[in-house]
Amino acid sequence: MFRATFNIVSDTASADEWKNGHLLMEVGDKAFSYVVYRKNPQHFLGYRQYNLEFIPGKTTYETLMEILAGDEFLQQHYHESAVIYNYTDSNLLPEKFFHIGLNKPVTELVYGNARKGLLLSEKVSGWGMYNVYRIPREVHTVMQQKFAAGKYWHYYSLLLSGIEKEQSLQADGINIIVEADQFIVLVAKDKEIQLLQTYNYQTPEDVSYQLLAICQRFKMNQEEIGLSISGLIDEESNLYQELLKYFLRINWEVLPQSIELEKEFSQFPQHYFSPLLKMALCV
Question: Domain containing 28: what range?
């Protein structure tokens, strides 16, 4: 079995708690994560994340298959299972312009046709938009076979669904979710979503360059704008120190007070996992 990058598992939760729990998985090009939780009350029992890259002699798909077959918690039956696809080929279209026949031309216009895959679309709850996206067909096939009754969404769709539009967009701001070598940016201005996109990076300067370019594009003052951060970053990191050079109003994303976490989560900052945990409340 592959070693998990993060392995947070309750040692006090009962078998019935696990059996009656909900399973939410996130799969992308580079990582596979899942969280097990109860909905009422909102209580998280465990979290695991696996790196899908850099496995000698194995493709990403083969690695994912072995993880799904070998992880003991993924062999259990849960009250409900759901999958979030975190792949970058995604376009948000206004509902009034959406038609399923646009899925292919819109995707290939923006991302090209060299990367083949399965085209899906879904309505983004509360935003009057549709998300048109492309995912690896073989990944969707194996997830459907393994979790036949599961539900499926794109990462952007649930990220937006977790935002209370009237409350969270009162002020202009930028949210970033930092991953191993990419980061997701959500820009809000004038109570509307202006941008939701994933960027690759190699150095901290790559991130600050993109964020400063975004501020210039949307006429935002980086010294005044709020920058909310979550994901794999902490105050000691070079990336955080780089952002402090330009942004004066940086804050860590926090979880709602109604959420309960097992004590094992306390060994890590909450913002490491807050995006996926908050999405679990929307499923």
Answer: 6-86+257-280
DSSP state, 266? G
How much is the pLDDT for 252?
95
Total domains, the chain: 2
Is it the case that residue 264 has pLDDT exceeding 50? yes
Residue labelled with tokens 């696996």 = 50
In a shared domain, residues 221 and 261: no
Q: Beta partners for 70?
A: none
For residue 198, the 8-state DSSP code is: E
Are 247 and 185 contacting, i.e. CB atoms less than 8 angstroms apart? no
What are 110-153's pLDDT values in tens digits?
999 888 899 999 999 888 899 999 999 999 999 999 998 889 99
- Report the DSSP beta bridge partners of residue 123: 130
List CB contacts of 105: < 8 A, sequence separation 6 or more: none
Contact 10, 46 (CB under 8 A): yes
Q: Does a cis peptide bond (omega within 30 degrees of 0) precede residue 269?
A: no
- Residue type at position 59: T
Is 70 exceeded by the pLDDT of residue 1?
no
